[in-house]
Amino acid sequence: MDKPDTHNLTISQAGPVKDHFLAWDREYAHLKWGGPAPIRDIQAQLLPGAKILDAGSGNGRYLGELARHYNAIGIDISLAALNGSRTQLARSSRFAEHLGASILDLPFKPCVFDGILCYGVLQHLFKEERESAVKEFINILQEGGLIFFEAFGCEDMRCGGDASIPFEERTFARQNGIIYHYFMKKEVKALFKEFEVVGLEDVIKEKTFRGDIFRRHLVKGVFRKP
After folding, report:
1. How high is the pLDDT of residue 16?
2. Structural domain tally of the chain?
3. 43 in a structural domain
4. DSSP alpha helices (H): ranges in 70-182?
5. Which residues touch 49 (CB under 8 Å, ≥6 apart)?
6. Considering the domain boundaries, does residue 183 fall inside one?
7. Can you list the positions of beta strands (E) in 4-92?
8. Residues near 182 by Cβ (< 8 Å), separated by ≥ 6?
9. Residue 3 in domain
10. Can you list the residues of the chain whose pLDDT is less than 50?
11. What pLDDT digit, counting tens, does each position of 147-185 carry?
12. At 99, which CATH number?
């Protein structure tokens, strides 16, 4: 695998950046660091030292933890996010390579990764883009490699709003320009149809406030390349 330049971050991609991708730089300009996120699901499946890609690594909440145990690389379309991630990892004396890249055009050789973490990313793409991203994942994963997936589910209390343009079912455009798609479990299974399903589940949490029920819904899965 070619070593990315982690000091002079540029976007590596085949075509022009789409508007809903550009929106992330504006978003990360004011997002605050939320602290490290747990990676227990990954540790249960991947041995220490494995090569893992954090596809859509944002400001490094997962990447910092991945770097403690794995040969980790983070890619994101937002250079603001990547710069923030590098700063956070440096404060923790951790290292991971960072690369500005589109998830639709990953700049890696075939069959080089043991695992891919894709949490909260595909929900911000249109259907054709989601399918293109999964094809990229297939290409760069080794045989037997794993994808760790997480995205919003259709029963989430936030599912709704202004319809996206172009229109797609359960896909909405927020005022910040970011696209939000809410998945059904069967839809996720179809998206990863080329993979073996290791696990796929709905994770639903409910809270009651002043008599009203507020529901958070995630679809989580682990998929293995045959």
Report:
1. 52
2. 1
3. yes
4. 79-91, 127-140
5. 69, 70, 71
6. yes
7. 11-12, 51-55, 71-76
8. 123, 152, 153, 154, 156, 158, 159, 170, 171, 217
9. no
10. 1-15
11. 999 999 999 999 999 999 999 999 999 988 999 999 999
12. 3.40.50.150
